[in-house]
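[step 3/7] inverse_fold.run input=structure_tokens len=343
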């Protein structure tokens, strides 16, 4: 057992409470991590603000984008030792036996245990993890960059994998934030032409800096018309906008024949799509939920190879800085992914 601090989610619409607690020793197949850095995700913010249902475990420590150093290992753990650098994602445990795990879709596991919802997450100085669900961090990847592999990179990587993105494809990235900046780079790493769409000029400028071939300010231009003018229609549209369902319909219309719309943002409301045009053009609409451990490992590889340059806002000072990072995210003043570094 070790004592440490935690930023505890006790009730919606309240700041996280900083407390000291005892963290238990790892069980037979577990490891105890000393958290070094944690990404601050919009999902956590939505949970705190009452827009998502509260976790089954309350109170709890949120935070599911974790980079840490192995502090202790359970008696049955092989191949992992204290001092190892690893990441842990929202996938705290997947069974490997249900129909979804067997077909490679562990994100849909029937027995899924989620980090930060069913067990304590990374807004704490220590976190327990299943040894089977942590992945090693390459030596040249910094602590503050490693958490991106567990969501901000892995989520668009998996979406593009599901869509079958390949060299020469035109990929439209709708919504330029933490996921959008990294989606641009993942698509470029696959050899795609990338069009980034958003409403913020400084974020669109940043999108160009990280590799976008074209940018469209949707507040000033007709995005469907511009995409068709630029490319004849996108092969893949990654829809990351969390608030406006009408942009999903625009993304559909901007596709070329046989194009694929990938739903990632999930705004409230319903899609209204023309069935006849849908059928005659063979456009496809798919959803992509999060990622698997494979996608995390590939995201770490892209980081290590320098093919994805992290876009982050760093907060140094440990759990006491989590509330500030959340507040800044709420205000919309963060560029890229907020990452809290524990020093």
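[step 3/7] decode complete -> sequence:
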């Amino acid at each position: 057992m070790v004592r440490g601090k935690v930023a505890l989610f006790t009730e919606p619409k309240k700041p996280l409470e900083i407390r000291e607690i005892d963290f238990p020793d790892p069980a037979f197949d577990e490891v105890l991590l000393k958290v070094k850095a944690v990404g601050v995700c919009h999902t956590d913010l939505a949970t705190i603000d009452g827009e998502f249902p509260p976790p089954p475990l309350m109170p709890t420590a949120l935070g599911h984008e974790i980079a840490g150093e192995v502090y202790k290992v359970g008696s049955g753990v092989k191949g992992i030792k204290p001092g190892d650098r690893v990441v842990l994602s929202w996938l705290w445990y997947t069974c490997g036996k249900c129909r979804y795990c067997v077909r490679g879709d562990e994100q849909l596991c029937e027995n899924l245990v989620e980090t930060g919802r069913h067990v304590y997450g990374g807004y704490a100085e220590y976190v327990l993890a299943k040894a089977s669900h942590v992945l090693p961090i390459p030596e040249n990847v910094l602590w503050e960059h490693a958490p991106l592999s567990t969501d901000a990179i892995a989520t668009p990587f998996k979406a593009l994998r599901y869509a079958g993105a390949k060299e020469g494809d035109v990929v439209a990235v709708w919504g330029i934030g933490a996921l959008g900046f990294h989606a641009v780079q993942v698509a470029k790493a696959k050899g795609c032409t990338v069009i980034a769409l958003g409403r913020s000029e400084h974020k669109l400028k940043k999108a160009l800096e990280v590799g976008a071939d074209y940018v469209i300010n949707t507040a000033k231009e007709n995005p469907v018309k511009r995409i068709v003018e630029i490319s004849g229609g996108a092969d893949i549209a990654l829809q990351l906008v969390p608030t406006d369902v009408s942009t999903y319909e625009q993304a559909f219309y901007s596709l070329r024949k046989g194009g694929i719309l990938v739903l990632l943002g999930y705004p409230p409301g319903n899609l209204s799509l023309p069935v006849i045009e849908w059928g005659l053009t063979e456009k496809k609409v798919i959803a992509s939920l999060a990622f698997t451990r494979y996608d995390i490992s590939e995201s770490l590889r892209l980081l290590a190879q320098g093919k994805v340059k992290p876009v982050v806002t760093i907060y140094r000072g440990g759990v006491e800085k989590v509330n500030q990072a959340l507040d800044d995210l709420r205000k919309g003043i963060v560029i890229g992914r907020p990452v809290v570094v524990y020093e």
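[step 4/7] annotate
The chain has ten helices and 17 strands.
The chain has two domains: 2-151+291-341, 154-287.
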